[in-house]
Amino acid sequence: MKHPILTKKYHFCASHKYGNDSWSEEKNLEVFDKDYNTHGHNYILEVSVTGPIDPGSGWLVDLYTLNNIVKNKVVNILDHSQIEKDVVWFKDKQPSSENILLWIWEQICDDIKDCTLHRLRLVETHSIHTDYYGPR
């Protein structure tokens, strides 16, 4: 790796419910168990970027700009939402950590300039996190 990787953490609280409308209630309960009920998480989102260090500032990203992008396009939308009901993108998708990361990447990747979005990590519980390195 020729450039450093900087990671910034964000927090939001959101709820979701797993379920497949084409399945019976019995099958939904068999597959999703208690997650078939609406439940919430205190998520931690890690946004990692990489790129050359600006010789003038000594930074690889302007954190003020990065914060504005992530807060406006992700945190302010997901915080205190019921993801599959409040975010249109999830209309026909499970609100899983995997899908949430795909959505987040789409929301922020084009707005991050002067560095490269390297990785997203979503921490759902103390024992589960999901990483996404983009659609490459």
Task: Report on this structure.
The chain has 136 residues and is of the alpha+beta class. The protein has a single domain, classed as 6-pyruvoyl tetrahydropterin synthase/QueD (Tetrahydropterin Synthase, Chain A, 2-Layer Sandwich), CATH 3.30.479.10. 29% of the residues lie in helices and 30% in strands. The chain contains 4 helices and 5 strands, in the order βαβαβααββ. It has helices spanning 25-32, 63-78, 83-86, 97-108; strands at residues 5-16, 39-50, 81-82, 116-125, 128-132. It has a 5-stranded mixed sheet. It is elongated, with a radius of gyration of 17 Å. The protein starts with a strand and ends with a strand. The mean pLDDT is 96.
Number of domains: 1
Radius of gyration: 17 Å
Q: How many strands?
A: 5
CATH architecture: 2-Layer Sandwich
Enumerate the spans where pLDDT stays under 50 for 5 or more consecutive residues: none
How do the strands of the widest beta sheet line up side by side?
A: 3-1-2-4-5
Q: Give the helices and strands as they follow along the chain.
A: EHEHEHHEE
Question: Keywords for this structure?
Answer:
Tetrahydropterin Synthase, Chain A; alpha+beta; about 30% helix; about 140 residues; five-stranded mixed β-sheet
SSE topology sketch:
Layout: E1 5-16, H1 25-32, E2 39-50, H2 63-78, E3 81-82, H3 83-86, H4 97-108, E4 116-125, E5 128-132
Parallel strand pairs: 1-3
Antiparallel strand pairs: 1-2, 2-4, 4-5
How is this structure best summarized?
The protein has 136 residues and is an alpha+beta fold.
